Amino acid sequence: MSALNDSQIVYLTEILGTLVGIGVTWLIYWDSDRAELPGEARIPDPQIREDPVVDSSGRTL
Questions:
Q1: Is 57 exposed, middle or buried (0-12, 13-18, 19+ CB in 10 A)?
Q2: What predicted TM-score, i.e. pTM, was given to this entire model?
Q3: 7-39 core/surface letters (b: 16 or more CB in 10 A; e: else)
């Protein structure tokens, strides 16, 4: 037998679900202001050759 009745279990589930949703939203948007957005990437100069070493730092897909 549980120490909680049915309505208390439902209430706790709602509260925990809300907190998990807030936590996931916070994790998604944390440091998102440093993300490179479309239109903000610099266009490389065609006169300058590309570096032979690939820069793998930063965010990737």
A1: exposed
A2: 0.51
A3: eeeeeeeeeeeeeeeeeeeeeeeeeeeeeeeee
